[in-house]
């Protein structure tokens, strides 16, 4: 269950969302609510502006996913108060690349049906294949081969997210195997606690390497810049839009590629991420496509691109249930 947060002033309300779990710093929506409430009792000035608010919350060790809800709401409120779409308030064009749509780890016979359903429902141009199966590399190869076979009649590019499921030798062999089968890049090939092995993998890499769980904040992009090709930031991991902007700036300063991903978010947080779409080389904003129902509306999917409304103020997403 997610937590939705509003920030209201001058008859204008901004909307944000927390999606707890994983490495986001909180396990439940109640955890997020408790942390936000306790923090704001002693730091009410954190609502004065998003950048100072993020710094104070980070220093107080508020869970990133919890503060992401407040940070998104603050940015949405600023844009709505200005009567501007959020992307325009940030000085960005209304532009983005098509999103990847994720295919989770499934048996090959299930994968074939899932791939066809996803492509036909979403018009996906990119599929992100989750690998790193506990059953080993042969299972990963069987799954990737099943996805490739199922998508053979469509103009679809395949990417891979190993979720830190390979060791160094496995990553080296799998990346070579995947390159021979048309894979675009590999995300998080090694566990985030094995970052010290990234230089060895990077030196002879067969495919571009993007990090996800290894990159939570801007300092992580700088720390690993010499042994990766790009970073995948997530609003729930970094604490919202304020730090996302810093991660992108840091990545670009180190000549790294950029990607934005998502957790189990509705259209609210996805709308915030999509508002930043012009900043990214790759986009993975698809979690709202799996919600039945999505509790919010305001986004559209056009030729595989998740778009915010170019004319609505803020991130343009509102709760509907």
What does this structure look like?
By secondary structure, this protein is an alpha/beta fold. The chain has 2 domains: 3-83, Enolase-like, domain 1, CATH 3.30.390.10; 89-319, TIM Barrel, CATH 3.20.20. Helices cover 39% and strands 18% of the residues. Helix 1 (29-42) packs across helix 3 (64-82), helix 2 (50-59) runs antiparallel to helix 3 and helix 5 (108-122) crosses helix 6 (137-150). The chain is globular, with a radius of gyration of 19 Å.
Topology readout:
Layout: E1 3-9, E2 12-18, H1 29-42, H2 50-59, H3 64-82, H4 86-89, E3 100-103, H5 108-122, E4 126-130, H6 137-150, E5 157-161, H7 168-179, E6 186-187, H8 198-203, E7 209-211, H9 218-223, E8 230-234, H10 235-238, H11 241-253, E9 257-261, H12 267-274, E10 282-283, E11 296-297, E12 299-302, E13 305-308, E14 318-319
Parallel strand pairs: 3-4, 4-5, 5-6, 6-7, 7-8, 8-9, 9-10
Antiparallel strand pairs: 1-2, 11-14, 12-13
């Amino acid at each position: 269950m997610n937590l939705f947060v509003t920030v209201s002033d001058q008859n204008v309300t901004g909307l944000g969302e927390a999606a707890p779990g994983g490495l986001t710093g909180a396990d439940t929506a109640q955890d997020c609510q408790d942390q936000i409430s306790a923090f704001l009792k002693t730091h009410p000035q954190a609502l004065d502006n998003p950048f100072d608010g993020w710094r104070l919350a980070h220093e107080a060790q508020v869970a990133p996913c919890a503060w992401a809800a407040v940070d998104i709401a603050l940015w949405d409120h600023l844009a709505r108060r200005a009567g501007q779409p959020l992307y325009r308030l940030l000085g960005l064009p209304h532009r983005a690349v098509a999103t990847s749509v994720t295919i989770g780890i499934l048996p090959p016979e299930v994968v074939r049906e899932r791939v066809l359903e996803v492509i036909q429902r979403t018009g996906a141009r990119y599929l992100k294949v989750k690998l790193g199966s506990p059953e080993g590399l042969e299972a990963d190869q069987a799954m990737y081969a099943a996805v490739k076979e199922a998508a053979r009649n469509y103009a679809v590019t395949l990417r891979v997210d190993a979720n830190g499921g390979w060791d160094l030798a496995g990553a080296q062999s799998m990346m070579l195997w995947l390159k021979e089968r048309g894979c675009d890049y590999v995300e998080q090939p090694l566990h985030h606690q094995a970052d010290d092995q990234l230089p060895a993998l990077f030196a002879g890499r067969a495919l571009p390497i993007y990090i996800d769980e290894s990159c939570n904040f801007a300092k992580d992009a700088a720390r690993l810049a010499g042994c990766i090709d790009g970073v995948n930031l997530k609003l729930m991991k970094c604490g919202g839009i304020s730090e996302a902007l810093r991660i992108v700036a840091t990545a670009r300063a180190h000549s790294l590629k950029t990607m934005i991903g998502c957790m189990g978010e509705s259209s609210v947080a996805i709308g915030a991420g999509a508002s930043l779409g012009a900043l990214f080389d790759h986009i993975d904003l698809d979690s709202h496509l799996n919600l039945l129902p999505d509790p919010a509306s305001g986004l559209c999917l056009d030729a595989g691109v998740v778009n915010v409304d170019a004319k609505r103020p803020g991130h343009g997403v509102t709760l509907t249930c």
